[in-house]
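In response to reviewer comment 3 from the previous cycle, which asked for concrete evidence that the modeling workflow produces usable outputs, we include below a single protein chain processed end to end. The sequence was submitted unchanged, and the resulting structure tokens are shown without manual editing.
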Amino acid sequence: MADAQVRLHLEKRDQGSVVTLEIDNSSRLNSLNTKLMEAFVAAADTVAKMEEVRAVIITGAGEKAFVGGADISEMGDLHDEASARGFINRVHQCCHAVRAIPVPTIARINGYVFGAGLELAAACDLRACSDTSVFGMPEVRLGIPSVVEAALLPMLVGWGRTRWMLMLGETFDASQAKSWGLVETVVAPGMLDQAVDQWVESLFKCAPRAVILQKQLIRSWEDLPLRAAIATGIDTFGSAYATTEPREAMRRFLEENARRKREVRDLSKGEP
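The workflow returned the following structure tokens.
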């Protein structure tokens, strides 16, 4: 049996690079043990420093699971509060490392996504799943509460649905996840890569630094009251003009718009 590992795939395109972080512990539904979590944090930290990267895709190996949760065998061997704190902090570090990546992160959800896996998906900016995916937060059925980045769930699905997930420990399907706003799109398993790639191509049409600033701003909104959030937005708008990117992007937009108007005008005159 191969050791669990995290694979980093770098794909270079004309508009920039795309990284896929693949969690491979497929014999155990890609569950997260300490060694795997440490490897994932190291890989995510490496990706965060790669300036040419425009998007990061997080996924699990195989088609059975995105991440089936934290390793129950390891959690069952935790012997006191200190060891429990150490383990759950490693789960948090995985989610934090994803949220610290400056470019958009996409969860490519291919099958089961439970507990820590759902928290990791919630830490991503966008989530696409196959219509065979199954979701759940079963921790209370294992004698523990759902914690760390489960705190993101109310912002995604609301407090009532979060309580339903965390207090009952029930599983639910992809269509329910979509209707609740937990995922942005649901497709057939064979279409999952195409759906993710469409988002990547849309990101490539955007100004790179503007996308990074937008992600930073959205992150700050999570922690700020309304007035402070608006003020931070004003500051961020101003900082966008620290480079020539806005002027260049708007110049290209105006030139393209003028070109299209000329084409429409020429066609209306019957000119080739």
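The first strand starts at residue 5 and ends at 13. We consider this sufficient to address the reviewer's concern, and the full set will be provided in the supplementary archive.
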